[in-house]
Amino acid sequence: MNTEENIPDRDGAAPHADAPPPGTDAPPSHADAPAPGTDAPTPHVDAPAPPERPARPRRRALRTLGLIAVAAVLGVVGGTAVGYGVQAERPPVPLAALNQPGLAYPAKPLPKGQEPEPLSAKEDLQLKAEGDLRKLLLPKPEGARGGEGGWMSLADYADSFTQPDAALESDLEQKIRRIAVRTWSAGENRRVKIELAQYRPSSGMGAYEHVRGQQAIAIDEARSGSLGEPVKGSENGRYFVYPVERKAGYLDFYQARAFIQHGDIAITILVFDTRKITKNEIRSLAERQLGRL
User: Fold this and answer.
1) Domain that holds residue 257
2) 174 part of a folded domain
3) Is there a domain that residue 93 lies in?
4) CB 80 within 8 A of CB 88
């Protein structure tokens, strides 16, 4: 009886009966032998993946970084403590005198008769806006029909939007104060509407937020076809000319819009017609209305 038969090796597995003698390589089987000049066959998809090595280097590196960070903090603390100790032993140094110029306004009221003249109504823009807002509306052109300027209720103003509830909620949040409106008709089917919506002072800057929102909607609408044109004399005012809308059985529909912010007032100009509206027409309306403010 062979005493070396079926003796386990160091890994605990018994050598195969066809295992080659020690020191020699096992010849490949016929089925797995690669053809001359070809690469070795790829392993089967079901072949078990080799076991992953434990991520000991990364953990060790993190521990090393932690030790370095602790050492750096201790060094900063130690250096700060030494600096305070050195500074405490030094005599106090007086601070340099402040170099401040004289105040711009007089220390005493000016004598009677030497006070500066108050701003005129033309120069005091806030005073103009505090007056009758209807008087600041652009007057109707000669030959136009209608054109009486008046106050507009908040309910009617919100109802003029595609989403009245959202418009009403937004205006209440922005502290809208009052709305003045003027409309007129000209030619066969042209209709013009100008709105002056005034907001109360607040951190939200209601007029600015309103104009910015309306401009964003106009830009997003594919019908506008552009980012609009700037209004001369305004920092953020823009006007838009929309391409014609055609539908079977209806007249052609044209429209142009302008949105301008001037202080606490949001200016909205709407023009509708069945004939073409030029850029010069909407631009002229926007510039002349802004000039009245």
Assistant:
1) 125-291
2) yes
3) no
4) no
Q: What is the CATH classification number for the domain harbouring 148?
A: 3.40.1000
Report the predicted TM-score, pTM, of the whole model to 2 decimal places.
Answer: 0.59
Tell me the pLDDT of the chain (293 aa) as tens digits. 444 444 344 344 444 444 444 444 444 444 444 444 444 444 444 444 555 544 444 434 444 445 455 555 555 556 666 666 667 677 777 777 666 666 566 667 778 877 777 777 666 666 667 788 999 999 999 999 998 889 999 999 999 999 999 999 999 999 999 999 999 999 999 999 999 999 998 766 899 999 999 998 888 775 555 778 999 999 999 999 988 999 999 999 999 999 999 999 999 999 999 999 999 999 999 999 999 98
CA-CA-CA-CA torsion for 49, 50, 52, 53, nearest 10 degrees? Answer: -170
Using the Cα atoms of residue 160, residue 292, residue 255 and residue 242 in order, give the sign of their dihedral.
negative
Q: Is residue 248 part of a domain?
A: yes
224, 263 Cβ separation under 8 angstroms: no
CA–CA separation, 72 vs 85, rounded Å? 20
Domain count, the chain: 1
Closest CA to 179 of 163, 197, 159, 192: 197
Between β-strands 265-273 and 190-199, what pairing exists: parallel, antiparallel or unpaired?
Answer: antiparallel
C-alpha distances in angstroms, 181 versus 6, 84, 135, 211, 269? 106, 70, 10, 16, 10
Q: Could you give the CA distance from residue 265 to residue 181 in angstroms, rounded to a whole number? A: 13
Q: Is residue 200 a part of any domain in this protein?
A: yes
